[in-house]
From TrEMBL:
Source species taxonomy: Eukaryota, Fungi, Dikarya, Basidiomycota, Agaricomycotina
GO MF entries: actin filament binding
Signal peptide: none
Name of the protein: Class II aldolase/adducin N-terminal domain-containing protein
One Gene Ontology CC term in the entry: cytoskeleton
Occurrences of domain Class II aldolase/adducin N-terminal (ranges): 67-221
Length: 275
C-alpha cells in the first residue's frame, strides 16, 4: 500500500494475486475517516460540507437540528415506516440540553413539519425507532446480522441484541434493559420480537443507520432463504470488516450519507417541512 492508500496487485505467470495481497489497512491514510472518502480538488477550494459550524450560536443550531429532524420523519414516511402511532426519533436540544425534540403523537411521519415538533426531557442524545417490516421480521430470531456485504460493516462490533420481549415499552426498567443491550459503544440494536433502534451524534446519523440496518435485515432474510436451498454464504472476515468499519462508521461519514436524501426532500417538498 502506498502513502495515498492505493493498492497495487501483482501476479506472476497469469495467476491471481493471493488473498494476503488483497488485505488493506489504514496506514498512510488520513486520520479523520471523512478525509478518506470526500471528493474535491487538490487545492482544497472545493470541499464536502459536513455539519455546519454554528460559532456558539445555539439558537441557529436548534433551527438546523429541527429542520433535519423534520426531514428525517419525511424520509421515514417515504420509506413506508409509519405504523399507526408507533415509532419515534428524538434529538437533544442545543439550547436546553436537558430537553429533546421528538415527533408529536398520532401525526404521520410524511406530514411532520418543524412547527409540529415537541420539546420534552431526555435521557439519551439522539435515537430512532420504528417497526419497519424487515427489521421486525429478522428480530424474531433474536440474533445479530452477519457481516455479509460492505454496507453491513457499518454494524461490525457496533450492534447489540436485546434478547427478550418484555411487551410494549412502558416501564422504566424495560428502557434500562435496552440501554444495557446497547452497552457503552454500540449505536445500533436489534430488539427481539420488536424491531430496530439506532443512535447517532446527529439525527441524520441515527436515521441513516436505521435505514441501513433495515436494508441489511432484508438482505439477511434473502440470504438465509438462498442458504436454505443449498447456496453457501461467505461472511466477511474480521480483519476486512474492521478495516472497512474504521472508515464508514465514523459519525461524519454516516451524517454525509444522509445528505442526498435531505436535499432530495427539500426539492420534492419545496421545503414545506421547514415551516
Amino acid at each position: 500500500m502506498s502513502s495515498t492508500g492505493t493498492i497495487t496487485l501483482t501476479a506472476s505467470h497469469g495467476s491471481p494475486p493471493s488473498t494476503a495481497a488483497l488485505k488493506q489497512n489504514v496506514e498512510g491514510l488520513a486520520k479523520n475517516p471523512l478525509e478518506r472518502t470526500w471528493r474535491g480538488n487538490k487545492e482544497g477550494t472545493v470541499r464536502l460540507q459536513s455539519v455546519p459550524d454554528f460559532a456558539g450560536d445555539k439558537f441557529a443550531e436548534r433551527k438546523w437540528v429541527k429542520e433535519h429532524l423534520a426531514a428525517a420523519f419525511r424520509y421515514w414516511g417515504k420509506l413506508g415506516y409509519g405504523e399507526g402511532v408507533s415509532g419515534h426519533i428524538t434529538v437533544i436540544d442545543p439550547v436546553l440540553p436537558d430537553h429533546y425534540w421528538m415527533n408529536p403523537f398520532a401525526v404521520h411521519f410524511s406530514s411532520i413539519k418543524v412547527s409540529d415538533l415537541v420539546l420534552a426531557r431526555p435521557e439519551i442524545k439522539a435515537a430512532a425507532h420504528c417497526h419497519s417490516i424487515h427489521g421486525k421480521s429478522w428480530s424474531v430470531f433474536g440474533k445479530p446480522i452477519n457481516i455479509l456485504t460492505q454496507d453491513s460493516c457499518l454494524f461490525y462490533d457496533n450492534l447489540g441484541v436485546y434478547e427478550n420481549f418484555g411487551g410494549i415499552v412502558l416501564a422504566p426498567q424495560e428502557g434500562k434493559n435496552i440501554a444495557e443491550a446497547l452497552g457503552p459503544k454500540f449505536k445500533t440494536c436489534i430488539l427481539q420480537n420488536h424491531g430496530l433502534l439506532t443512535l447517532g451524534k446527529t439525527v441524520d446519523e441515527a436515521v441513516y443507520l436505521f435505514s441501513a440496518l433495515e436494508n441489511q435485515c432484508r438482505a439477511q432474510l434473502m440470504v438465509e432463504a438462498a442458504a436454505a436451498n443449498g447456496l453457501k454464504k461467505r461472511v466477511i472476515d474480521n480483519e476486512d470488516a474492521r478495516f472497512t468499519a474504521s472508515t464508514i462508521q465514523f459519525w461524519e461519514n454516516t451524517y454525509i450519507n444522509f445528505q442526498p436524501e435531505y436535499r432530495l426532500l427539500l426539492e420534492e417538498t419545496n421545503g414545506s417541512f421547514l415551516k
